[in-house]
Each structure stands twice: as C-alpha cells, then as structure tokens.
Amino acid sequence: MDCELKISILSDNLASGNCEAEHGLSFLVEAEGRLLFDTGASDLFLRNAEKMGLDLAAVDTVVLSHGHYDHGNGLQWVRGKRIVMHPGVFAQRISGRSGRDISMAVNRQTLEAQNTIVATREPFRLTDKMTFLGEIARVVPFEAECSTPFHFADGTPDPVADDSALAVETSRGLFVVSGCAHSGICNIVEQARRATGVGKVFGVIGGFHLTAIDSRLEQTVSYLKNVGAEIVMPSHCTGDEAIAEFRRHFKGELMRTGEVFEF
Ligand SMILES: [Zn+2]
Ligand SMILES: [Zn+2]
Questions:
Q1: Domain range holding 222?
Q2: Which residues make up the environment of ion ligand 1, defined by Cβ < 5 Å?
Q3: What is the pTM of this model?
Q4: 26 vs 42: CA distance, rounded Å
C-alpha cells in the first residue's frame, strides 16, 4: 500500500459503477492493519466487495459502530471474525418517527457461536494505529443534549449509548470513521483525541446525522476547523445540504458505494 490509509466503500446510500447502494454503511479500512467497519443492511457489502476485487476473508476484525439494522444486519453473513462492539448493541429498539423496529436482525448468541465477540464500553486498541472508541462521552456543549427519535421496546427513550466509532492514527493526525454519529460527531472526535492522546485531526468520514443548515451545523464546522480537520467526508445519514456545506469548508470527495479513497 503506498498510502497511509485506504477506505473502500462497500455499502453506502449512493451507488457508482457496477456496485449497488442501500440505506446502510460498510467500509473496508486499511491502515497498518485492515478491518471491516460495519456491515450494512444486508449481504450487499459482500457482493460489492467481490465486484471490487476485495478479499474479505483476509480481514480478521469487524468493528460495529452501533446496533441499528443498517449497520449490523450484514453480521448475519460474518463467520470466524473478532467483532468489536459496545455491549448495548443487541437491545430491541424502535424508531419513534415510523414505529418501525430498527434493531439488528442478529442476536448475541448466534453471533457468538460463530465469532469472537469483544463487547466493551471502554476505548479498545485494535492495532498499533487503530482504536475502537467505546461509549462516547457527550461533552461538547452544542451536542450534549443530543436527543434521538428512538425508544426501546418498553417505551423508554433510547439515546443510542452504544454509538461508537473508529480512530486511525496517521502521520498527519487522526482520521475518525463514524457510523451514524448519533452520539454527535464532535463528541466522537473529542473522544478520539482523548483516547489516543493525539490532538490534531486530519480527517473525518462517515455518517454525521446532520441534515439542516442550522447553528449546530455551523458550530460543527467551526469545531472541526479548530481541531485542524482537512478532509471531511460525510455520507449515509447526512443530508445533501449538510454535505454541500461541509464540502464548501473542507477538502474531501463526494462518497459513493464502490469507490476507494486513499489518504
Ligand atoms: Zn443508527
Ligand atoms: Zn445509519
């Protein structure tokens, strides 16, 4: 590999080339090691990986960002891997907007019978340069009150405490990979800086869960500028207008399934 970090988009909301898209997220992340970050909503990540000529059999670790179907349903097709996650990912959860069950279609028992599960709330070092961030502390003032439209099966509010992310250390600073960022993208970046001890952020990629052009979005842009972010590539659950706004302020290409980005 003649770059420090390579991210292949196996599943995301937009399609390109001969790869299909879905409302889901799955990235192959290659740095000094390689891992699968999320598995999308179906077996699409496997079919796209094959079309892209990527051998997922050579990957031994899967990081699950959080327990929603669009990130974890693909786990049904995962065998013989180490799967790293927050222990709360298996909860049954409902979207308040649609009343729809948005839990993953896999339970812990089945997954554990075929894989090794590492369930932790603490940051967990995956390789020399890659860290699973554990439960994200909600400390950034404009994100501290991050409320979600979700609830558990018993009706209590679901703050998606299991929402985590991945930090990759590069010579140009941290590269943060998020799933849906229900815990707040700035809270995630803060946790990455704390967990690794690296203050400078180089890039942020993944779902940001921001849609409106509002003060929170502007504060997010300022925050990311302050921590030195150069590349910002939101996708998946980020709205088109919000994506355009980030592209006005930062470098980073529009992301589509089937594409490979080298940093
Ligand atoms: Zn989600
Ligand atoms: Zn999502």
A1: 6-262
A2: 68, 180
A3: 0.97
A4: 10
